[in-house]
């Protein structure tokens, strides 16, 4: 165990598990995590109940009563996987944080090898479900398309951004704020901050209990979040560049259209009444002014955002933990 963590009474490894209606898988997952990590690390397991409507919270309550290494966070309602992971990261205490799904499709036995990969100088180790046991139409095909798009747009080439099983150094997550479906983009966000990313093939198992929570409907959300991530990564501190760039294009269009209108009037002696190019020139001039003003307004909003207080994207109903457990790492 890390000496600094020991001095602070903090575990070396925190395993964060987002949970949504997985009552039939939780006990088996807990046993597998315990079997894998016991005698290897000082660890904790942080379960985040994301508004489950089944008996998941009751199962987690029983597990927590039997093992002080377990901490359970319960949301007031369903906020989504990204919010659940964000809460787990915030309330975990380990210097190494492992994220894993609750459906037993991720294999906890892969965790030690992934943690060992960090010692090679990496900050994030991302799982690659090379042999997936999911439906081709609703899961595999959209996933391949999404992974290709994310890699092309972010410049971080991973085979499987959507794999929840990932290992992070705590400092990498400390500066990462998550919204929407952005948990899958953490490697890209971390890479833009200078973190070293590694990918490792992990075991992927068929689902034996419960029902999948995601399908084709999430694809559009991922694409929209990808656009947001690209904007945040490239223009979050300089939005005037993108709005100013669009304004420049609009201004050039206005100049070209204006010159054609002048040529038509002075050389060809065309009647300008109802001339569509004249109308387009005026519209492009107005668009240029609006885009520049929007860029300036965005600059002001960005500065306000970076100076404002942090606000979480979730609301916690209750936390189950052992007496003397002081909560998340500061």
Give an overview in words.
The chain is an alpha/beta fold. The chain folds into two domains: 224 residues, Spore Coat Polysaccharide Biosynthesis Protein SpsA, Chain A; 69 residues. 48% of the residues lie in helices and 13% in strands. The chain is built from eleven helices and eight strands. It has an eight-stranded mixed β-sheet with strand order 7-5-6-4-1-2-3-8, with helices on both faces. The two termini are 19 Å apart. 38% of the residues are buried. The mean pLDDT is 84.
| Radius of gyration, taken over Cα atoms and rounded to an integer in Å | 25 Å
Give the CATH level 1 class of the largest domain: Alpha Beta
> What letter string, H or E per element, gives the SSE order?
HEHEHEHEHEHEHHEHHHE
The number of distinct helices, counting runs of at least 4 residues, comes to 11
The proportion of strand residues reads: 5-15%
Strand arrangement within the widest β-sheet reads: 7-5-6-4-1-2-3-8
Instruction: Indicate the CATH topology of the largest domain.
Output: Spore Coat Polysaccharide Biosynthesis Protein SpsA, Chain A
What is the CATH superfamily classification of the largest domain? Answer: Spore Coat Polysaccharide Biosynthesis Protein SpsA, Chain A
Distance between the termini: 19 Å
């Amino acid at each position: 165990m890390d000496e600094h963590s020991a001095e602070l009474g903090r575990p070396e490894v925190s395993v964060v598990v987002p949970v949504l209606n997985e009552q039939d898988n939780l006990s088996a997952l807990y046993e597998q995590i315990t079997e894998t990590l016991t005698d290897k690390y000082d660890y904790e397991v942080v379960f985040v109940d994301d508004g489950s409507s089944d008996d998941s919270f009751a199962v987690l309550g029983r597990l927590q009563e039997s093992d002080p290494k377990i901490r359970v966070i319960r949301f007031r309602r369903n906020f989504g996987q990204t919010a659940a992971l964000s809460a787990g990261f915030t309330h975990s205490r380990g210097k190494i944080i492992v994220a894993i799904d609750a459906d037993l499709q991720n294999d906890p036995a892969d965790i030690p090898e992934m943690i060992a990969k960090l010692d090679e100088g990496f900050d994030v180790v991302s799982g690659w479900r090379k042999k997936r046991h999911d439906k081709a139409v609703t899961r595999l095909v959209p996933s391949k398309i999404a992974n290709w798009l994310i890699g092309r747009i972010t410049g971080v080439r991973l085979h499987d951004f959507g794999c929840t099983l990932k290992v992070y150094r705590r400092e990498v997550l400390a500066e990462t704020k998550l919204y929407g479906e952005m948990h899958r983009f953490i490697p890209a966000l971390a890479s833009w901050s200078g973190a070293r990313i590694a990918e490792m093939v992990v075991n992927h198992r068929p689902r034996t209990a419960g029902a999948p929570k995601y399908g084709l409907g999430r694809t559009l959300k991922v694409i929209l979040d990808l656009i947001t991530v690209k904007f945040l990564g490239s223009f979050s501190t300089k939005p005037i560049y993108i709005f100013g760039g669009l304004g420049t294009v609009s201004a050039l269009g206005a100049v070209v259209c204006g010159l054609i209108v002048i040529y038509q009037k002075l050389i060809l002696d065309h009647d300008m009444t109802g001339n569509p190019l004249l109308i387009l020139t005026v519209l492009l001039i107005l668009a240029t002014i609006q885009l520049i003003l929007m860029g300036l307004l965005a600059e002001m909003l960005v500065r306000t955002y970076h100076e404002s207080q942090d606000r979480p994207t979730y609301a916690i109903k209750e936390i189950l933990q052992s007496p003397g457990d002081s909560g998340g790492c500061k």
